[in-house]
Amino acid sequence: MYVIGAAFILMSGILYTLELISNYVPENIKWAGLYAGDFFGEVPSPYLHGFVNNIYVPAFLLTGIAIIANASLRKP
Prior knowledge:
mainly alpha; 70% helix; rod-shaped
């Protein structure tokens, strides 16, 4: 049961990281365009998504914590 709980926690971290990466790539493309165009135009500011914007990330994290807590409290 510990492995399943750890897998859920790991999956929430992977999803959160992928969400951040998918946010930074388009912003960096805008920055590259500004460098190529000698900074004419507006400088973009990246919008960072919060931890709870993607419902799966906290759901996987809480599920993993609950599974590990249940496994550690259960008597053998």
